[in-house]
Specification:
1 helix; rod-shaped
């Protein structure tokens, strides 16, 4: 999974929303438009695993990028009533 791959009608998870996909020899053919099937430009192309990304890219081959966030980014300053402050002895809670 090192490189991004394009979705193809030969994939076992590929589905046509119009149920118009047939195979003519080695070519995937769309009976709805009467031309060769192109998942990148088709509005009815679907993936049964919901991995079809815009532009006809297969989401199974895309590696996710995650960003680590520190606890500072989640800190929220909260103002509390004076009675609570006297009990806690702090001006702000984090």
């Amino acid at each position: 999974m090192s490189q991004v791959k394009r979705c193809s009608p030969e994939c076992k998870f590929f589905r046509c929303g119009r149920k118009s996909l047939t195979f003519r020899g080695e070519v995937a053919w769309c009976k709805w438009t009467n031309e060769e099937c192109d998942p990148a430009n088709c509005n009815y192309a679907m993936c049964s695993r919901r991995r079809l990304l815009p532009g006809g890219i297969c989401g199974e081959t895309v590696k996710r990028r995650t960003v680590e966030k520190g606890p500072e980014e989640f800190a929220i300053k909260v103002r509390v009533p004076g009675k609570v402050l006297r009990k806690l002895g702090e001006e702000e809670l984090f």
